[in-house]
Amino acid sequence: MYTHACRVLDENDETPTFSRDVYTATLSENSPRGQSVLRVTAVDRDVALNADITYRLEDDPNGLLAVDARLGVVRTAAVLDHESTPVVTATVVAVDAGTPVRSSSADVFVRVANVDDEPLTFTRSSYSFHVAENQPAGTPVSSPSSSSSSRGRRDIAIFE
Ligand SMILES: [Ca+2]
Ligand SMILES: [Ca+2]
Ligand SMILES: [Ca+2]
To answer: What is the extent of the structural domain holding 121?
Structure first.
């Protein structure tokens, strides 16, 4: 009877694989720096160092996002502004610690939702309105022509 000790040496033949090709999230503009946005996850079917994954971001030239190398949590690295950057994109890369290393990537797509943070600019310096008596306070009386660079909503002035 043979006692056969066999040690299987793992080869780094598996590539880290993300759970999704594209990770998307929506975040309100002006959210504080460091706000958690989403979490990416990759798995590697090797063992030990060959499956030891770290994450990093690429294609984020303005440094608007950051990823936790171990946890895969993507956070804001700046206060995001809808008017200047309505969508932030980056590439997240998962790298194993094998020799040679194997890596793969996924896209990160963050929509920066608008908040009405732009001051109204009136096109005339004064307006006059005729308002019927006894209207409840808060009744909209007019929509003076105005502009705001915050898109996506119509500005209605309410005079009391
Ligand atoms: Ca691997
Ligand atoms: Ca803004
Ligand atoms: Ca805005």
So the answer is: 117-160
